[in-house]
Amino acid sequence: MDKIKEQENIPTSKVQRASKFISAGAKVGGNYVKHYAKKMVNPSLTKDDLHTSNAADIYSSLSELKGSALKVAQMMSMDKNILPRAYQDKFIMAQYSAPPLSYPLVVRTFQKYFGTLPEAMFDTFTKSAVNAASIGQVHRATKDGKDFAVKIQYPGVADSVSSDLKMVRPFAYRLLNMNEQELDHYMDEVEEKLLEETDYELEVIRSKEISAACSHIAHLKFPNYYPELSSERIITMDWLEGRHIKEWLETNPSQEDRNQIGQALWDFYHHQVHNLKQVHADPHPGNFIIQDGVNLGIIDFGCVKVIPEDFYHGYFSLIKKDLLIKEEELNQIFFDLGFVSNKDTLEEQVYFKSVFKEMISLLGEPFHAEEFDFAEDAYFNKIFTMGDRISNDRMFKKSKQARGSRHGLYINRTYFGIYNLLNQLGAKIRTTKPDWLK
Amino acid sequence: MENIEIKKSNKVDIKTKILSAYIQYVLEHGKEPSSVFKFAQSIKIKEEEFYNHYTSFQGVKSGVWDQLFDQTITMMEAQEVYRTYSAKEKLLSFYFTWIEELKKNRSYLLALYQGHTGFRKSMPEELKSFRRKFKDFSTEIILEGKETEQIADRAFISDRYEDALWLETMFIFQYWLKDTSTSFEKTDVAVEKSVNLAFDLMGKSAVDSLLDFAKFLYQSK
User: Is some CB atom of chain B closer than 8 A to the CB atom of A386?
Assistant: First the structure.
């Protein structure tokens, strides 16, 4: 009942809509849980018919819906709305939130994949998780005097990705004001990436590859990965001692140290994007660790985006200084990247071209100077106000087209993530560009 | 002396022989043998010898379930870490080990129980002895849970906890029969989440505080 009511009068602003959608889901779920809880503790109501299966079903679909739905909503919104403030909080909330795995299930996972117990593989092994990863949890272990981080994936996540996304689809159409076809264009990309994230064997291979290719960059630290102690659902790597960014900032680090960490982060991404053409596409604060002497430790290569050559060229042409590109060339890029299409009216084409030009010149600003101070909140406020203004514009709201190449989804997310981290660090960066853009 | 011992081991052998021959038969034919006579003949024992050990096929099936339970307990207790587990972890460990044992006999169980509707309404006869064994096990767990205050002792209701856990067991069994996910991962999730839920419901919760508060308001009126 509640669900239907909520859908009939969806509030207008997108942020409101997003938060309403979440609370509606929680309410429906809450009702069910309460309903079944009541039935379970009151035997006269139940006559032993405890509906364990129903309750368990709802319980599980609830916690899963929360993760994927939010993830999708948050990613789509980034592309259309350029990160309004309210979404930022959701971004952090949207990490897969499930109760931690019980130790017997950890034991079972070990038995399934290694045929032995955690205690037999390591000298010590913590019974409870020391950290939550996005779709798993981390235990700390030791063997022969060495410390390891052992990441264990929640079972059933890989199987549920596709069905989760199907569940989210109808909500996403309404939420994001897109038509089905346009949305599917992005959904496929999201599904592909989420499935990749559940493939731990691939993650080990990529982690080794990228960390080897970036080992020359100053002040970066990568853990070693141990394929012989890893499997489809388990990854073993070195334990990196250090602090998370937030904790580190609480220790009042000096400006030099902040700059050093920020620069390491920038150089790391510069090398990946422009030289390796594949990038760690999840610059979430939880994936970094800051070590004494100040080095930046990179953990978790779950989400890696490979950048196709033609997309790379078009996308980064846009950061040429002050768009010193010819109008014609720019138009071609806009078409190629799907910002503007033949389905648009002439009026729409003109409007969206101007909008994207404005966005690009603002977002590209850090690239245009030798140095850029990301501590400046004024710059970020300019981005937010522009995002709010554009997303409230009648022309923008009216258009049901999805805009931008599917490849842009994760690249945009990556850059938003980096900007955001650098802002948190308050770092001043020597910004670099590849030679062909100078 | 010696003579008796030989006889005894011989007896056990025939018992297990009947069990495994029966499983074999179901696996090959996808159904139960049509009569005890024919079955006894096919494994080259006299019909009366069959009746020395089991009264009917029902009894054999019951024996299979007993074996499943006993093996689960042995496997589980062989893990050193089991002794350090809390009540909830013990129950989880039981279910996980049990599904592993079930897996070894999946085809047999599918042949007999696939499409069997409503275990809750009419439990197959042969599960009775398994149920008794499980009940002893769960009573112990609930007792331990109460001692460590993981489980709340509630008037009237706490007597039904064992029944609730039995229903959960049957839910897991049926879920597992239908599970088609890789290496039955979904069943793992179902076990984990349903045990969490069961212990949350059996533990001290907001409902208890609410009742307590309501009682207070009522009495102090």
Answer: no
Same-domain check for residues B130 and B206: yes
User: Looking at the complex, does the CB of residue B158 fall below 8 Å from at least one CB of chain A?
Assistant: no
B27 and B73 assigned to the same domain: no
CA dist B215 and B221 (Å) reads 10
Cβ separation of B188 and A155 shorter than 8 Å?
A: yes
Asked casually if ipTM beats, i.e. exceeds, 0.90, the reply is no
Residues B173 and B110 in one domain: yes
Mutate to test the interface with A, among B161, B192, B207 (most CBs of A within 10 A): B192
pLDDT in tens, B45-91: 888 888 988 888 989 999 999 999 999 999 999 888 899 999 999 99
| B168: chain A residues, CB-CB within 8 Å | 52
B:68-97 residues touching chain A, CB 8 A cutoff: 79-81, 85, 88-89, 92-93, 96
Chain A residues within an 8 Å CB radius of B198: 52
Same domain, yes or no, for B22 and B100? Answer: no
Q: What is the dihedral of CA B25, B30, B31, B35, to 10 degrees?
A: -30
> Of the residues B33, B55, B77, which one is the last residue of a structural domain?
B55
Give strand pairing partners of B143: none
**Do B196 and B116 lie in a common domain?**
yes
> Are B85 and A60 inside 8 Å of each other by CB?
no
**Together in a domain, B18 and B126:** no
Secondary structure in 3-state letters for B169-209:
HHHHHHHHHHCCCHHHHHHHHHHHHHHHHHHHHHCCCHHHH
Look at the block and give the residue holding tokens 């080897």. A212
Domain span holding position B3 = 1-55
Residue A28 is inside which H or E element, if any?
A: helix A14-41
C-alpha dist (Å) from residue B50 to A118, B53, B129, B187, B204: 45, 6, 20, 37, 51
> What is the amino acid identity at position B87?
A
Instruction: Give me the residue from A50, A102, A159 closest to B192, CB to CB.
Output: A102
Q: Considering CB atoms only, which of B81, B163, B190 is closest to A56? A: B190
Bridge-based pairing of strands A220-221 and A295-298 is parallel
pTM: 0.73
Q: How far is B58 from chain A (nearest CA, A)?
A: 26
Chain A (122-161) residues lying within 8 Å, Cβ to Cβ, of chain B = 154-156, 158-159
* Residue A305, beta-bridge partner list: A279
C-alpha span between B69 and B75 (Å, rounded): 10
Least CB–CB distance from B171: residue in A41, A53, A99: A53
| Angle between helix A406-425 and A309-317 (nearest 10) | 50
Number of domains in chain B: 2
Distance of alpha carbon B57 from its chain centroid, rounded?
A: 19
Give the closest of B174, B182, B197 to A159, CB-based.
B182
For residue B219, tell me if it sits in a domain.
no
Single-letter code of the amino acid located at A37 = A
Give A372-391 pLDDT, tens digit per residue: 999 988 888 887 777 767 76
Q: How far apart are CA B203 and CA B152, in angstroms?
A: 5
Same domain, B165 and B68: yes
Q: What is the CATH number of the domain that holds B44?
A: 1.10.10
